[in-house]
Design brief:
Length: 305
């Protein structure tokens, strides 16, 4: 029973399929607006294709009441038109100026500028508030000469002094001097002097310092009259007097200085024989005196500590 039913269903299905295919091939004439083999096709006329370069006019949708937008204006002549068949635009080329030309020279041909010159003014070193100094000097004395002297006068020697400066502008100095030579009368003389002087420095902050000095002192002399017809006679004199003058000190370094000065002195004999045998006698006027004067020139160096 079942085999018969299955066979009958297969025969019916084959008959229906064959009849449908024949109907489809023998149907009405094909529609030019539908592609071949289409079962369903609308009677809508196909719009002709727009020529190249012209905008395509779109038909409004069925049931739409709005008017289609106007076509865009044609592009200007020479403008690029971007479309399906248009060539791509040319690449953008940016022109830049070439790099500057750099010329390298060998170092031996390059003349370097001279090095700068710097001038430094040394700052003066501050002087200490108080200091001690040891002065060493040579000296010469100008005494003049008598008209009756048989030898020209002139004396020279050396000396040293101890200086103390409590402040830069003022100092005290004690000197010991040894001189020898011919005195005013032309006699041979050896003399030792001890003096005390005060020094006032006028410009203590400068390297070259001008100073004034004044003081007093004692001296002892041994005199030999070697021109007497009665033979050589010797005398011992003592003096007390004062002196004053000016000088210049050049401060080479903080602890060393050079100095020159001139001292004019006047003194009187104070020994016991001054009244009985005066030292000086003027044969023209017959006057006698024990007062003498002269100028002492000194030059030396001072070590400060």
């Amino acid at each position: 029973m079942s085999k018969r039913l299955l066979l009958s269903s297969a025969v019916v299905a084959s008959t229906v399929a064959f009849a449908g295919g024949a109907w489809a091939q023998q149907g009405p004439a094909p529609n030019p607006h539908c592609p071949p083999g289409s079962w369903f096709c609308a009677d809508t006329p196909q719009q002709p294709a727009a020529p190249p370069g012209q905008p395509v006019m779109l038909q409004p949708l069925p049931g739409s009441r709005e008017a289609p937008p106007p076509p865009p204006p044609p592009p200007p002549r020479g403008a690029w038109v971007y479309g399906p068949g248009a060539p791509p635009p040319p690449p953008v080329v940016v022109y830049q100026p070439p790099p500057p030309v750099v010329v390298y020279q060998s170092p031996r041909y390059i003349q370097a500028p001279p090095p700068p010159v710097y001038y430094y003014r040394p700052r003066p070193q501050p002087m200490p508030r108080s200091e001690w100094g040891l002065n060493l000097h040579g000296e010469g004395a100008a005494l003049g000469h008598s008209s009756t002297a048989t030898h020209d006068s002139g004396m020279g020697g050396v000396g040293f002094g101890l200086r103390y400066k409590p402040i830069p502008a003022f100092g005290l100095e004690a000197d010991v001097d040894f001189l020898g030579g011919r005195d005013y009368n032309g006699f041979q003389r050896d003399e030792t002097a001890f003096t005390m002087n005060g020094l006032v420095f006028l410009n203590p902050k400068s390297r070259a310092q001008l100073y004034l000095q004044a003081g007093f002192g004692w001296a002892g002399a041994h005199v030999v009259n070697d021109s007497s017809p009665y033979g050589a006679q010797s005398f011992d004199y003592s003096y007390f007097g004062g002196q004053g003058g000016l000088g210049l000190e050049f401060r080479v370094a903080r602890h060393f200085a050079l100095n020159v000065d001139a001292l004019a002195f006047i003194r009187e004999r104070i020994d016991s024989g001054a009244a009985q045998s005066p030292e000086f006698y003027d044969p023209t006027t017959g006057q006698t005196t024990n007062t003498s004067a002269g100028v002492l020139f000194r030059g030396g160096m001072t070590f400060y500590f």
